[in-house]
Specification:
homodimer, alpha/beta, seven-stranded mixed β-sheet, five-stranded mixed β-sheet
């Protein structure tokens, strides 16, 4: 049952004066529950508990953490229909999407459970002593990854499960051994509370310390600001807009002790369409891209907001096809009146710019809070000259840029901001003639896709979900896949440390049977 | 021959109006060469060349990069006595130290050459396609580390070779495939120019692109500021003071596109001495620590500036012994009049604080620019109450903190700023009774040492040279060892990319024969 309260560790609490409700965009009404925003006292309590919890949680074994993570997955499933109904009532998204996203969330939690149970992820590295080395003896040095400390997680509006309360950031941080404080997203505070209740249950069941997880409600920016400024918070995970992500990054970098902020932010996900591909599969592409642009009402961070081609008749044909295909798609609901409000405003502002031409826009009547998809075109030079064309319009909207030639195409790509993804649509033989274009694209993105669509982010170790700024605040990390744990850990060395006092990961006898780099060789062998 | 000019890529250049000389602290005179500070035009040229060079250098094979790195090592050795003499004339350090540091520098370069020649460091990760997966097919996704872009390196005053022009930051960045622009340290500009000439020679010999390396002279902060603000610079490496490191971090985080700064900064390297250890080996310890405190005139970032013990007669005895031992050591020269000036000022300021007692200070006459070592004591409560006691005094100076009891010892440790190292001096049986003390120490440091001294940083894969702020700006990385390459690379994914267009590291046939994680299994096998 949703109560509207915060979780300050294991304790429910609602001491703050500020309250708010979530909104059902399909019905265009507020939902019933009154949520209590965490006040400063509650925020400080949550951080204090997290700091205390870290003392034991940082030394909790991989096996125990795996039990905790799996229990969270089990308890989320236990929530059953209430979770799905709450999700739908707070997002306007359909049930199938809710269930799919729950599946992804469960999969992520279990992947991290596998990772920490197996244990080799700590990158144990051992260099044994050489006592008789000249001119100086060599010490025994052993290194492994250790958790960085309490992590604050800001959930995304558009993924209330997979990138929110028990989403990738939280799962990775808990797997690392970092207590988590979630700044709950106000648009899905009910979904957040239900998932938080599952995490708290799981923590109690598996004997985790009080404070290993807290869930704080918030209607505005205050709770987040206080959390990021708190000296005992050691890292921040965020998914959302560039404006909000940058604000948190700035706050964190102005602290006396700056802390890492991994913010996954905006992206227009450029798609480069080469001429031969248009000739051979232009029609299919138009259908595929009409679907990708409107998928989830365009509310994906990997939504293709920019299609780049070289001026030609086939490109004209493709634009005509896409124009027809995109208005065949039934409009769908956006997450919140604020989000559709921003969509309409941003789209209008852009469409009012000189040298941008609307070529297709859904113009029949739609339900309230439903988004009208649109596509527009611009020349390569117009695009190069107007920075407004480079900005993300969050929703089902794309610009097709008609470049003069290959050189201009390369130039357009080089001038793009950093992106999560870049896509190349090409005939197999064609791509190798466009090395400079491909190379320019690679330098602007975190992931490059061949003859596909950017929407859809596979959860697997080889995935990079991140990229050069402003796709993320630090391109050296990924937000998806088990390697996203690296955001929340630091390497730590023991020099000449007694074997009995070393963590199991580094003991001579390798009791956890993990892979370790011993004197430059990867092995599971014991040391003599 | 030292000319005083900058290297703008392969070109020597001295267009700026500002000139300066280096200083010989042993002779207390300026050295002859007039150095030309790089002007804005030269700075922009260097960055522009680096950006151009990146286009080819980022795709240069590991074998080629290894040749380049080994050629740098060879060319540095070729410099012969001129390098050693210049080093000594610019630092006041003895020849043995110069040769030792050259050896370390060569070893680092060759270690990175080995690493990139072998090639597995890119963490190649492959998840193969599952076309018939339900409900959606799974794409083929392949990931590897790629270089981040041009890196600016700020050398350290106290390690003109190993942490400067061709030091660890530069070697790691070049190994990664990142062009490097060095902001040469004004105190050893001649050493820097010689090493730069070796790098340029090596680059030409091995066919590296013009702009892969530049060396810019500077007398003040302007050159560094312009470099860090330049939009085409993608990362910064720094070794030096907290003040300077933080200033660069702030500059970088205020950019439109913030970039990572890895700054290795100050540290007082706390040494915790447990009671039984004092009983059994107090005398030996006093000798050992007198040497460690004064090693290199205390000009090491791992110098033990803080000894922490629990009040007792044996601690009193140790303090007396250390007091006697430390003044037996012959004072030695500091790097520069400015550095000895800071040392004397910082020491005086501290010694004038209430509740700090000087227990030993070398007070015989010394040569000009030679430092007088000193030790002082303070109670645990005095230390807790006065933040001035927590600051590093760069030079041969340490404070011994006499804590009331174990609880206060733990409290003192918990209140410390982040540190590069922490040391525990204990009898083997004793340590296990001090879990809380050890745990507190671990949370404040990057490396923990048992019954040793913090001075001496072994170059090996298990080394962590870094730590919580302000030991470094980002505790998730190390400045020493081959893993320091991770500061300058980012993960990059290819989705459904044609095999022929993939980099060799990710091709089906594994032509480089590197270790790769294929469908969660580490293997060198080819893919079918």
């Amino acid at each position: 049952m949703i109560t509207g309260e915060n979780y300050i560790g294991f304790q429910k609490s609602s001491e703050g004066a500020i309250t708010f409700k979530t909104f059902n965009p399909q019905l265009n009404i507020e939902n019933d529950t009154v949520f209590s925003e965490a006040n400063l006292k509650e925020i400080n309590q949550a951080v204090c508990l997290a700091t205390d919890a870290f003392r034991t949680f940082q030394n909790t074994s991989g096996t125990q953490k795996a039990k905790f993570l799996n229990a969270i997955a089990d308890e989320i499933l236990e929530l059953g229909d209430e979770l799905i109904e709450t999700y739908c009532s707070e997002t306007g998204l359909p049930e199938g999407r809710a269930k799919g996203e729950r599946g992804r969330t469960i999969f992520q939690l279990r992947s991290f459970a596998e990772l920490v149970k197996e244990g080799s992820w700590v990158e144990a590295t051992i260099d044994t002593a050489i006592p008789d080395r000249q001119p100086l003896p060599k010490s025994d040095i052993r290194k492994m990854m250790v958790p960085i400390g309490p992590v604050v997680v800001f959930g995304a509006s558009n993924f209330p499960l997979a990138y929110s309360t028990a989403g990738g950031d939280t799962a990775a941080a808990l797997a690392a051994g970092c207590p988590v404080i979630v700044k709950s997203h106000p648009m899905h505070a009910g979904t957040g509370e239900l998932v938080a209740s599952a995490i708290i249950k799981a923590a109690k069941e598996t004997g985790m310390p009080n404070g290993v997880f807290s869930n704080l409600n918030s209607s505005g920016i205050d709770v987040g600001v206080q959390l990021v400024k708190h000296p005992d918070v050691k890292a921040v995970g965020f998914t959302g807009s560039i404006k909000a992500g940058r604000a948190l990054y700035d706050l964190a970098s102005h602290r006396k002790e700056p802390i890492p902020v991994f913010a996954e932010m905006g992206s227009v996900n450029p798609v480069v369409i080469l001429p031969n591909a248009l000739k051979t599969k232009g029609n299919v592409l138009a259908k595929t891209y009409a679907n990708s642009i409107t998928l989830g009402t365009g509310q994906f961070c990997t939504n293709p907001g920019l299609l780049l081609g070289i001026k030609s008749e086939v490109l004209d044909d493709f634009i005509e096809n896409l124009s027809e295909e995109i208005i065949k798609i039934e409009p769908s609901c956006m997450l919140h009146p604020n989000i559709i409000g921003s969509y309409e405003t941003n789209k209008e502002n852009l469409l009012n710019q000189d040298r941008l031409n609307v070529v297709s826009q859904y113009d029949a009547d739609v339900n309230i809070n439903y988004a009208r998809q649109a596509i527009a075109t611009a020349s390569g030079s117009a695009f190069l000259e107007n920075p407004a064309f480079h900005k993300e319009v969050f929703g089902p909207f794309s610009i097709i840029v008609q470049c003069e030639n290959e050189e201009q195409l390369e130039q357009v790509i080089s001038k793009l901001d950093g992106q999560l993804t870049g896509t190349l649509i090409a005939d197999n033989d064609e791509a190798s003639n466009y090395n400079k274009v491909i190379s320019a694209l690679q330098n602007r993105v975190g992931r490059i896709i061949f003859n596909g669509v950017p929407t859809g982010v596979e959860v697997c170790p080889s995935m990079v979900h991140g990229g050069p700024y402003p796709a993320s605040t630090d391109s050296r990390f990924t937000a998806v896949g088990v390697n996203s744990i690296k955001r929340w850990v630091r390497p730590f060395s023991y020099q000449d440390w007694p074997n009995s006092l070393l963590p199991d990961e580094l003991k001579n006898e390798n009791p956890l049977d993990i892979s370790r780099t011993v004197n430059n060789k990867l092995t599971k062998d014991k040391l003599n």
